[in-house]
């Protein structure tokens, strides 16, 4: 019999995961029930998975009122609702839950979920998708083999991409730390998770500097208007012009933007008029200098670990492309990762280009493998949770990110993790 999976939150992430379940695992898994606060989302998605009316829910409360109706649950709502919904899921009796990151921006909340998961024997997996990719898996494997000796330091950069940063962290869902979380947690809990995974030692101290340097009123060009399509005089030379980014650019700055029409309009299928309307009057058409964003557009975090290793994370919103750099320096050699490319240098030896296998755009490969790992656990094909991003592992990345924010707000003062 097929395993049943229910999904709460039918936006970009929820539907992507559902797509992978259907495409790669339909012989083992069926989408059983759906929940979203938007009727439109249910109407768009339910027919694709043949989910009948009585298994469509418009609130988590209605969904949980039915008790445990599936073997597993995916929670892919926006950040601020993760804690409440995940807590309810555990208390209702779900034993396997896939929860989107970040878990919460409040330490008491994510540690409570960790404790509840422990007490109730729940496997609560957080979607740190990068860990599951071949690329980062290969890095971990090389480190674990001892080839580069002991890690001395890690230098990791998350180049968010200027158009991506504007989309998500200036105009979009993650622009306000009070309705979502600080950008260092929202964007970089993945990066911090990777660093902590590579170093494999408890973090003892954190310090951080950063700011919202550019996307603020002081930098608005002359003639800027609150909406790009509202008569802005600086439109032509502005790389953030929403009309260009979302409507007229024939090449799409990135595939990423192309798939964002649903985010702009809230509908799965869109006409050009829908998109134009959304850009004229919606959040994604706003001037990046005159919006109500407050999260940092650049931040540096330094970390010191118990084994003596150190790390620096540099998050910035200004690169031409979206890509990560990861330079891991060991006592015997180094790994140099740039985008999809990876080189291994052994000191006194040869330099090797490492083949990291098939890499589709963005972190899609990690997403696919995360879902495969989830299905294996769901179907009882493995009980090995080593390297699975359970809530136990996630607490580390969230602690470091929040400690970094505390440090940044205190002028870069060192935060000792034992006091955090
Ligand atoms: N793991 C990753 O790499 C990664 C990447 C991007 C986003 N995310 C995270 O995934 C989550 C979802 O992001 P998204 O881009 O899919 O967002 P989205 O806005 O596209 O989708 C969220 C969906 O949840 C629904 N929703 C909101 N509140 C709800 C509630 N209380 N009950 C039921 N449904 C509710 C919304 O109507 C929407 O359909 C976010 O927390 C985000 O930070 C993770």
Give your account of this protein's structure:
- With 420 residues, the chain is α/β, with parallel strands linked by helices.
- It folds into 3 domains: 3-126, NAD(P)-binding Rossmann-like Domain (Rossmann fold); 131-215 and 293-419, Dihydrodipicolinate Reductase, domain 2; 217-285, no CATH class.
- It has 15 helices and 15 strands.
- It has helices at residues 12-25, 39-45, 60-65, 82-92, 107-119, 134-145, 162-171, 183-186, 189-199, 242-248, 255-258, 261-265, 272-281, 364-378, 391-409; strands at 3-8, 29-35, 56-57, 72-75, 96-99, 123-126, 151-159, 203-211, 298-305, 310-316, 323-330, 333-338, 341-346, 351-353, 415-416.
- A 9-stranded mixed β-sheet has the order 14-13-12-11-7-10-9-8-15, covered by helices on one side. A 6-stranded parallel β-sheet has the order 3-2-1-4-5-6, sandwiched between helices.
- β1 (3-8), α1 and β2 (29-35) form a beta-alpha-beta unit.
- α9 (189-199) packs across α15 and α10 (242-248) runs antiparallel to α13.
- It is globular.
- It starts with a strand and ends with a strand.
- It binds nicotinamide-adenine-dinucleotide.
- The site of nicotinamide-adenine-dinucleotide (NAD) has 26 residues, from α1.
Characteristic terms for this protein:
six-stranded parallel beta sheet, binds nicotinamide-adenine-dinucleotide, Rossmann fold, nine-stranded mixed beta sheet, 420 residues, 15 helices, globular
Concise structural overview:
The protein has helices at 12-25, 39-45, 60-65, 82-92, 107-119, 134-145, 162-171, 183-186, 189-199, 242-248, 255-258, 261-265, 272-281, 364-378, 391-409, and strands spanning 3-8, 29-35, 56-57, 72-75, 96-99, 123-126, 151-159, 203-211, 298-305, 310-316, 323-330, 333-338, 341-346, 351-353, 415-416.
